[in-house]
Specification:
mainly alpha, 7 helices
Length: about 140
């Protein structure tokens, strides 16, 4: 039985959603890497930094991700889903990449704690929404 174009596009959307969620799953590592990130920044001139301070990154991540989820599909409808997900996933990757090379906690907080979750939320439900369009 040949696969129709509609079903092929649906499977493509599901595969894109799986790949995106593998990437966005890095946020769940925060509990494990929190102590190492705190130590790194303390060694690079942020002596005032404590684990209690860096713990705030996770709730900030969840809040901004939720805000991004709310607006992601709406922006995707406006820009086009392919273009939107490329912009959002690229923004996520760039913000995580930049945060890996910062030596200031507040720069890290801006890129990893504010920009990355916002881009993550914006992109996260676009593949799910597209899959719902192909597999009602």
């Amino acid at each position: 039985m040949p696969i129709s174009k509609k079903n092929f596009n649906g499977f493509r959307c599901i595969l894109a959603g799986i790949i995106c969620n593998l990437i966005f799953g890095t946020m769940y590592l925060w509990a494990n890497i929190n102590i190492y990130v705190t130590t790194y920044f303390r060694l690079h001139g942020n002596e005032w930094l404590t684990i209690n301070t860096t713990t705030y990154i996770y709730p900030t991540w969840e809040l901004l991700r939720a805000i991004g989820i709310y607006f992601g599909i709406r922006i995707g409808k406006f820009l086009g889903y392919k273009k939107a997900i490329m912009i959002f996933t690229t923004g996520f990757a760039v913000s995580v990449f930049i945060s890996a090379y910062t030596e200031s906690f507040w720069t890290f907080m801006f890129f990893y704690g504010l920009m990355a979750p916002l881009f993550s939320g914006l992109a996260e439900y676009i593949p799910v929404h597209c899959s719902w369009m192909y597999f009602p």
